[in-house]
Every structure is written in C-alpha cells, then in structure tokens.
Amino acid sequence: MPITVVKDLPAIARLADENIFVMDTVRAESQDIRPLQILIVNLMPTKEITETQILRALSNTPLQLDITLLHMVTHKAAHTSEYHLSSFYRTFDEIKEQYFDGMIITGAPIELMSFEEVNYWQELTQIMDWSEDHVYSTLYICWGAQAGLYYHFGINKELLPSKLFGVFENEVLNTQPMLLRGMDEVFYMPHSRHTTVPIDKIKANKQLEILAASEKAGAAIVRSLDNKHIFVFGHSEYDRDTLQREYERDRGLGLDIAVPENYYPDDDPKKAPIVRWRSTGTLLFTNWLNYYVYQETPYIIEQIKKMKRQRLHRE
C-alpha cells in the first residue's frame, strides 16, 4: 500500500528497508485518485519511533493514505528536535479547517496523572471536540484510549496494584464486527501501563461494546456502536524490542521493574523476545481502515459532518 507522507521523513528510509512502500508528496500529487486523509496525533515522547510503528501498522492495505502528523503546541517535546517537528508535523491551528477520513491518537507515558493535570489536556479535548464534525472514525491507543473514553463517555481510569507489563492473551468476545474479521479467537497484545478502565463501567454504557478482553489485562478492544470511536488498550503496533528497551531503561534508572510477562522465552531476558502480536496489529489497522473508514467515509470529504449527523439522527 502506498502511504503518503512529507518528503524526507526519516521513517521512509526505515520502512523502505522492510520493503514497505511509502510515497512522498511529490509523487502522490501526480496521481489522479482520492487518497484517504489520515491524521496521526502523536503524543509519544519518542515521536520518530512511534511514527515508524504506526506507519508500518497502516501499510498492509491496498488503499492509498495521505498522512498528516500532529503535535501538541502546549507541550514541549523533550526527545524530538524542533527541526523534526517543524519539518514533518503540523499544529491544530494549521489543520482545523480540514477534514479527515480517520484519526489516530497515540498513547502517552502520563497515565499516573489525572487527565486534567496533563498540560495539553485542553488542547487535546479541543481536537476531540473538533473531530466530531471533521473526522469520520477515530482509533485511540493505550492512554489515548483511556483519554477518549473519559472525555467522550465519562468513564475514568483506575490505578492498578502494579504495572501491567508484558504480552497478554486476549479472547474475542464478539466475532461479528468487521474490525475483528480474520482475527483468531485468542490473540496476543503487548501492554505497558499502570492504569485500567473497569470492564463493568464499559459494559454499563449502552453506547459501547467490549470486543475483546483478558482476565489479566482487562478490556483490550472496545468500540462505540456507531464505529466512530475505536479504543485499543494495548500496543499491537510495537516493535519486537519495544518492551525490552523499556525494561532496560527502567533497570538502568534503578526502578523496581519486573521482567515483562510472556515476552522472553522462559521469561529469560537473555533470550530474544518472541513476536506474537504482529498479525493482530495488521488486522486491527487494516480492518479499521477498510471497514470503518474507507467503506463509510464520503468521497467528498467535506460531507463528513453532514453524514455523521444524518446517521446520528437515524439512530
């Protein structure tokens, strides 16, 4: 699948080494087709790593995607250069008049803070408000999923007794939604978080459905019944070594960090991690793009607001 990004984005070269086709804007402008407009709100501190992971996850569909990267102006990025942000990212003020077929809101390592304490919370809620009329479907990841559930549906996160860290088995609870098409009845997904959203509170909301869950990790995938909000509480986009780098970083800082569960063979950090979540990530992102974005979004993208309101009225 051709993914269109700003020319010279570092992720292009990395993905090309994996035989993933990424097209820059110069070539894309010569093609007479309507690509899907996808907005990625990247909240992670290591933005270049996350860009590559998300673009890789989006790469397994024949659809052409025109990617826009967005960063928060109310937060100073400590691990990403100003050059990178100014070259490849845009701000909300720069795109707020545009429409997008899909939006992805990433996780962020700030879950121990209340949402209102986050310095860019007001900016993020402004984006989530705006998305109601300017984005057809939104995919929220990890902290982004907790933030979206809290803001749109009033369900708050809760602190876990200890960090949920590792690769956990999840069970599909409903095979009918197209989001899970082709997925195994039991699948694996990495998690790295200190908080969770109580399953009973999600079940109590008639606008939401839990599609997959784990006895250990809790809710894994949740959707709003209109498919406009998809919440994924793990990280199916992670690289093989993402949890390892986090584990080694925390150990280097002298933190009390457990070996990530079900990640290393025999739970031995001296052995190479086993990837058991790649196909899950491929299906999640591909199915979301195909069935909840491409098959539903209007060809004239400016009609998103009208279509969403008509559907809401019918329901």
TL;DR?
The protein has 315 residues and is α/β, with parallel strands linked by helices. 33% of the residues lie in helices and 24% in strands. It has one domain: Class I glutamine amidotransferase (GATase) domain (Rossmann fold), CATH 3.40.50.
What secondary-structure arrangement, pairings included, does this model have?
Blueprint: E1 3-5, H1 10-16, E2 22-24, H2 25-28, E3 36-41, H3 47-57, E4 65-70, H4 82-88, E5 89-90, H5 92-95, E6 100-105, H6 121-134, E7 135-141, H7 143-153, E8 158-172, E9 186-196, H8 199-204, E10 208-214, E11 218-224, E12 229-232, H9 242-252, H10 278-294, H11 304-314
Parallel strand pairs: 1-2, 1-4, 3-4, 3-6, 4-5, 6-7, 7-12
Antiparallel strand pairs: 8-9, 8-10, 10-11, 11-12
Describe the structure.
By secondary structure, the protein is α/β, with parallel strands linked by helices. It has a single domain (3-158, 191-238, 281-314), classed as Class I glutamine amidotransferase (GATase) domain (Rossmann fold). 33% of the residues lie in helices and 24% in strands. It is built from eleven helices and twelve strands. Strands 1, 2, 3, 4, 5, 6, 7, 8, 9, 10, 11 and 12 form a twelve-stranded mixed β-sheet that branches. Helix 4 links the parallel strand 4 and strand 5 (89-90). Helix 1 (10-16) packs across helix 3. The longest helix is centred in the last third of the chain and has 17 residues, at 278-294. The radius of gyration is 19 Å and the shape is globular. The protein starts with a strand and ends with a helix.
